Amino acid sequence: MPESHLTQTLPTRDEAKQAEETSRVLSSRLRSKTPLRLRVVGAPEDETVVIPASAAKMLVGILDEMGRGNTVTVIPVHAELTTQEAADMLSISRPSLIQLLDGGMIEYRKVGTHRRVRFESLIAHKRRVHAERLAALNELAAYDQEIGI
């Protein structure tokens, strides 16, 4: 994935305010599976565009995050990441990621001497680790109740 896709900049105060207001307006108009129809004003002739419901929900989510002052990165599921990009997404060091790759915990492929990690594989790993942590936490909570803590 080209480096430019992962470049992140914080929204300005004005952008955050605009995003927050737009998110509020659009979210009140969303129906579960109904496409969103928007009128584009200022074009040579006013146009109406149709945004699929799933894309409209994503757009509202993006605007909501921007309204909070956060950056947002949209990554296609089939995108391939460098090891540094993948490590950054997991909030771990690159050497730690390499250990996970070499240990078979995350699928990857080699392009020459470089490893490429599919975003899909990275998310699958993240979900698996989350589920394992949740199971361990539930087990500890059950044990605490059993011994009366």
| Beta-strand content estimate | 5-15%
Q: Specify the structural class.
A: alpha+beta
Backbone CA Rg: 21 Å
Q: Number of helical runs?
A: 5
Low-confidence stretches: 1-5
Mean pLDDT level: 89
What does the overall shape look like? extended
Number of β-strand runs: 5
Name the helicity range: 40-55%
Spatial order of the strands forming the largest sheet: 3-5-4
The separation of the N and C termini measures: 50 Å
| H-E string | HEEHEHHEEH
Which quaternary structure do these chains form? Answer: single chain
Number of domains: 2
Biggest sheet layout: 3 strands, antiparallel
Annotation keywords:
149 residues, 52% helix, three-stranded antiparallel β-sheet, alpha+beta, extended, disordered N terminus, single chain
Q: What features would you describe in this structure?
A:
The strands form two sheets. A three-stranded antiparallel β-sheet has the order 3-5-4. Helix content is 52%, strand content 13%. It is α+β, with helices and mostly antiparallel strands. The longest helix is centred in the C-terminal third of the chain and has 29 residues. β4 and β5 form a beta hairpin. It is built from five helices and five strands. The chain folds into two domains: 65 residues, no CATH class; 68 residues. α1 runs antiparallel to α2 and α3 crosses α4. The radius of gyration is 21 Å and the shape is extended.
